[in-house]
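Interim report, section 4.2 (structural modelling).
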Amino acid sequence: QVQLQESGPGLVKPSQTLSLTCTVSGVSISSDYNYWSWVRQPAGKGLEWLGRMYTTGSTNYNPSLKSRVTISVDTSKNQFSLRLSSVTAADTAVYYCARFIGGMRFAFDVWGQGTIVTVSS
Amino acid sequence: SSELTQDPAVSVALGQTVRITCQGDSLRSYYASWYQQKPGQAPVLVIYGKNNRPSGIPDRFSGSSSGNTGSLTITGAQAEDEADYYCNSRDSSGNHLVFGGGTKLTVL
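Predicted structure of the assembly:
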């Protein structure tokens, strides 16, 4: 079955760039109708969609974060990545990678377990 | 604030029926998907589209939509249904995705 696994530093200094990778197994990252996405959740708060990338390379980002967020795909490794620049303490959260299925389903059907990222000096 | 509005908390007696709602202008044109999240765990998709359940989701979970409101109904709530529930759909521009603020369901 499809599985996602996040990896990356758990601690990032303020003003630096947060970088996370999601390894996909059980499906090709180039499959149709699959959008590779990132969602985050600060402690005790709700879910926030960060953005998604289609296999063609087209991207779609949360307007509130658009200038700081970049999502990219490495088809050779079946991985996709998140970069969030100029981080502050407000970016401290659990970061999830997720598969968003387009078409009739139009939903996040597979999620990684999440990885905690703390922004602190 | 989110473009999709949910009640922060709802409670239901064991075995009774509860409806969790999600309001937003985009829901007049698009369906909401629904996610269950238990403490310390990743969200799990429970309803998508008009009223579809992924494999493994009990049939006590159902979805509906009317006007600008999407609803998740749990018929015969069980203790294990106690969790946070989030809706998701497009934003009012139709170009981006957005989550509702979440509803904490307590089963009494």
